[in-house]
UniProtKB/TrEMBL annotation:
Pfam families cross-referenced by the UniProt entry: DNA_photolyase
Protein name: CRYD protein
Species per Swiss-Prot/TrEMBL record: Psilopogon haemacephalus (coppersmith barbet)
SUPFAM superfamilies attached to this UniProt entry: Cryptochrome/photolyase, N-terminal domain (SSF52425)
Annotated Photolyase/cryptochrome alpha/beta domain residues: 1-74
Highest taxon above the source species: Eukaryota
Record-linked InterPro entries: Crypto/Photolyase_N_sf (IPR036155), Cryptochrome/DNA_photolyase_1 (IPR002081), DNA_photolyase_N (IPR006050), Rossmann-like_a/b/a_fold (IPR014729)
Keyword Disulfide bond: no
GO terms, molecular function: damaged DNA binding; deoxyribodipyrimidine photo-lyase activity; FAD binding
Gene Ontology biological process terms, A to Z: photoreactive repair
Keywords: Chromophore
Keyword hit for Transmembrane: no
Lineage, broadest ranks: Eukaryota, Metazoa, Chordata, Craniata, Vertebrata
Amino acid sequence: FDPRHYLGTHCYGFPKTGPHRLRFLLESVKDLRETLKKRGSTLVVRKGKPEDVVGDLITQLGSVSAVAFHEEVR
């Protein structure tokens, strides 16, 4: 979770991520984690700027051969 998406960001006077959207995101991530766990896998969730967190995670895991990402559409 990139904190820049949740703190003081507004589009047309509306918060980019309000309380309802945030609740939906958190419930969705929780459900995905539980589904993956039932299938013998897991979901790694981190909070921070992706440009910092991804590098740290790769270093921590050690055996990463590929990283996939998407760019937010603006």
